[in-house]
From TrEMBL:
Keyword terms of this UniProt record: Cytoplasm, Repeat, WD repeat
InterPro entries xref list: Dynein_IC, WD40/YVTN_repeat-like_dom_sf, WD40_repeat_dom_sf, WD40_rpt
Biased composition (Low complexity): 81-97
Name of this chain's protein: Dynein intermediate chain 3, axonemal
GO cellular component, one term: inner dynein arm
Major subcellular site: cytoplasm
Length: 438
């Protein structure tokens, strides 16, 4: 079955039918807002949800999120076909991706309930810590000059659908593999959690774990959640009229956040070649380039690309000397931009400088949070002491408080008379009293 139609004689856009549709009753009840492929060097165990090494080096799993408040994990490997051979000399029909049509179900569902309300987080973006690597298998930060490894974040995984689920989960478990996920919501919250199931105290069954924490990051729907290609624990988010940079595990808030701009953001992405540069697109068709090595309070470059809202952006480094930026707007127009030299060539030790910058911001956020908590505790103590003093005065007998009140009133009245007499003398209305020379 040909997925793409290349007949040049067609005078209209061809309609490509879907190859596989999921089972509606087990899918998202509302719109799917984001899809994220699991990297092809690991896989999630269908039974235990542990992260295993993918020995086949083909990507078979993906993660979706929707505004219905669920994050779902899917596997594109169909079950072994149940068709029996009609002849003893024939074997069973090999599995095919079309076997999943209208029967495809997620193997794991992660609900996103709110802790204070009987509602759920409406997810618009999802991000996992592990990302797609280059063919050489990069473990940590990429080398700035390695062009192949710089495309790991936007690189596509090897997808091989004609594999049965009987071959799933055959690799060893990866020790220390992250099972954390970040979710951006329709209301601007940033949610962080762990997909590892926990044991229910009442039923004894393993159930999905509730999100660990959330923070009000933006004043509008989160439209961008991108991990830095140089630092796996650094995320860029944008929503409404603001953007923010977060660090995984830092629960005191974002490391860096912007003030509100005049136009809403629609999408964004990191630069694949410079650790301190990222791009943000706006509702009015504008493009902002932020260079944290230069300044952090305003964009380094602002340029209008289209008269319509920009809906998608994707940078691509062709060679070590050429980098392009693809931008698409709401009318379906694709704009290809050439990234200038200053925005694609990193400064000396830029990755180390940015790493130190993020570390300083982490310490600053922790210190600020600690000082805020200390001031709040001191304020509570002072209010408690004042309340105790007031209670003590109210509970004291009336005869004990009367002399104290009379003494304070007498002093205040004497001060008033002295001030009044001094003012009258200065105005010449009364003569000063003669001084006694004896």
């Amino acid at each position: 079955m040909d997925i793409f139609i290349t007949d040049v004689k067609l005078d209209h856009s061809p309609i490509v039918p879907p190859l596989v549709l999921s089972y509606l009753e087990h899918s998202h009840s509302l719109s799917v807002s984001h899809l994220h492929w699991i990297p092809d060097h690991n896989e999630i165990c269908v039974k235990s949800t542990h992260v295993l090494e993918n020995v086949s080096q083909f990507s078979h799993q993906l993660v979706t999120c929707g505004i219905d408040g669920y994050v779902m994990m899917w596997d594109t490997r169909p079950q072994q076909s149940g068709k029996k051979p009609t002849s003893p000399h024939k074997t069973t029909t090999p599995p095919s991706l079309t076997d999943l049509d209208l029967t495809w179900k997620p193997f794991y569902k992660i609900p996103l309930p709110r802790s204070e309300l009987p509602k759920t987080f409406s997810a618009t973006r999802v991000s996992l810590r592990e990302r797609q690597r280059g063919r050489r298998g990069r473990q940590g930060r990429g080398e700035v000059g390695d062009v192949e490894n710089q495309q790991v974040e936007k690189g596509s995984a090897n997808i091989h659908p004609i594999v049965s689920q009987t071959d799933a989960g055959t690799g060893p478990e990866i020790e220390g593999a992250s099972t954390k996920y970040f979710v951006g919501t329709e209301d601007g919250e940033i949610v962080w959690g762990d997909w590892t199931p926990s044991k229910d105290q009442e039923s004894g069954k393993f159930i999905p774990t509730r999100p660990d924490y959330f923070s009000y990051g933006h004043c509008g729907s989160v439209v961008c959640m991108e991990r830095s290609p140089f630092f796996r624990d650094i995320l860029l988010t944008a929503g409404g009229w603001t953007w923010a940079i977060w660090r995984e595990g830092e629960k005191n808030g974002p490391l860096l956040s912007s003030c509100s701009c005049a136009v809403q953001y629609t999408c964004g992405t990191w630069s694949p070649s410079r650790p301190g540069v990222f791009f943000l697109c706006q509702q009015n068709g504008g493009l902002e380039v932020w260079d944290l090595m230069d300044r952090s309070h305003e964009p380094t470059l602002s340029q209008n690309i289209s008269s319509l809202p920009i809906t998608s952006i994707n940078p691509f480094r062709i060679t070590s000397k050429q980098e392009m930026l693809a931008v698409g707007d709401s009318a379906g127009t694709l704009h290809i931009l050439d990234v200038p030299w200053a925005l694609k060539n990193p400064s000396t030790n830029e990755d180390g400088i940015m790493e130190a910058f993020f570390e300083r911001e982490t310490q600053r956020v922790g210190f600020s949070s600690g000082r805020t908590a200390a001031r709040a505790a001191a304020k509570r103590e002072s209010m408690t002491a004042a309340s105790a003093e007031l209670t003590k005065e109210e509970s004291a007998p009336e005869g004990e408080l009367e002399p104290v009140w009379q003494e304070e009133a007498r002093r205040e009245y004497e001060d008033y008379l002295a001030t009044e007499n001094k003012l009258l003398i200065e105005l010449g209305l009364v003569e000063p009293l003669p001084q006694d020379n004896d």
